[in-house]
Amino acid sequence: MLVNKFSLLFLTTLCYSLSYQLQQMKTLNWGIVGLGKIAHSFVQDLQLVDNSQPVAAASRSLDKAKTFSSYYKIPKSYGSYTELFNDPAVDIVYIATPHDSHAELSIEAMRAGKHVLCEKPLAVNSKQVQSILETSRKEGVFMMEALWSKFNPAIKECLRLISTDTIGEVNYLQADFSFNMNHEQEHDRMLNMELAGGSLLDMGIYPVFLAYSVFGKPADILATSRFHRTGADIQTAIIFKYKNGIAQLMSGFASRSDMVAKIYGTAGRIHINPVWHESEGLSIYGNEASSPPQQIDLPKKGKGYTYEIEECMRCISEGKIESPHWSHQNSLDLIDILDQVRRQIGLRYPFE
Ligand SMILES: NC(=O)c1ccc[n+]([C@@H]2O[C@H](COP(=O)([O-])OP(=O)(O)OC[C@H]3O[C@@H](n4cnc5c(N)ncnc54)[C@H](OP(=O)(O)O)[C@@H]3O)[C@@H](O)[C@H]2O)c1
């Protein structure tokens, strides 16, 4: 039906041509800041990308930085983030600390002349995001929110299929991101209000990003949450209304959801296979109930952080301060929507 071999051939050719371009680029030297869970995954993917290499790692503890660096064979270790920002060998800093510190650290790194890739959410609220983006413009350095799903091959292909009317006029989207966690660990980053914890900013950001990528900014928002005793939202349900559609979204720490994102149009529907925000394929259904879905397999390189890394390399080599594919305006729109959801559910952080 809908998708033919030519589009897959086109995708494969595009991948080869992008990979050739990356091989021609000057090596980009990365500094890794905040050596927690995601920093480990990111560095493993960084080592899979041609002409990108980790040259320094910084932690609040020098011992921790040395252990991390020796494991990944990174030449330099620092016991403070500021020392890494001031290292002339570092071209770009990857910030992987809790959300509350993203703005302060991104700004400090850019003022030291570094390009920055900062973990999602880019910051806790619109005001903070604006000051980050102003600094990027003022210093003339590249800045991108690490919204890696935007560069995931399956999600890219899904958005392309939607834009070419493969499933007709899209009018309904359903997406969630929820798992079960131990609610007794009050100091866990995810439940800690001082670190801007809660399911919305950590996981709900993905379904919100998908709805925004498909429909744009919502005309109306309805949202409600259940809260942990710390004040962090442990379940948040959201409905966005658009002129021509509805999105139904959910994030949570209380149960595991199936994590299939479903996008419905007048001529069929696309499922982004689980776990959808890091998917490796799509299932495309027509409106005939009896016909089997068409499966499209789009395996990832590494865990999938490779694509945002390659995007940083391309943009920096072209002298850009933002990505055309996840732009500064996209980050501003996303945090504005999240701010609106937070106002509805009554979630404010102690430092706001
Ligand atoms: N893109 C993705 O797939 C993905 C996945 C998970 C998380 N994330 C994002 O990445 C960020 C970090 O998440 P994570 O799961 O890696 O968190 P994590 O395991 O808790 O690690 C965060 C690191 O930040 C540093 N840090 C600085 N100030 C801190 C403080 N006050 N309390 C605790 N740690 C502090 C610590 O590193 P040092 O001790 O070395 O200084 C810590 O190891 C979050 O913003 C999250 O949204 C993204």
Describe the structure.
The chain is of the alpha/beta class and 352 residues long. The protein has two domains: 18-149, NAD(P)-binding Rossmann-like Domain (Rossmann fold, 3-Layer(aba) Sandwich); 153-299 and 326-345, Dihydrodipicolinate Reductase, domain 2 (2-Layer Sandwich). It has helices spanning 5-23, 37-46, 62-72, 81-85, 102-111, 126-139, 153-163, 199-215, 306-317, 328-345, and strands at 28-33, 52-58, 76-78, 92-95, 115-119, 143-146, 170-178, 220-227, 233-242, 245-252, 261-265, 268-272, 281-285, 294-297. Strands 8-9-10-7-11-12-13-14 form an eight-stranded mixed β-sheet, with helices on one face. Helix 6 runs antiparallel to helix 10 (328-345). It starts with a helix and ends in a 7-residue tail after the last helix. The mean pLDDT is 94. It binds NADP nicotinamide-adenine-dinucleotide phosphate. NADP nicotinamide-adenine-dinucleotide phosphate (NAP) binds next to helix 2.
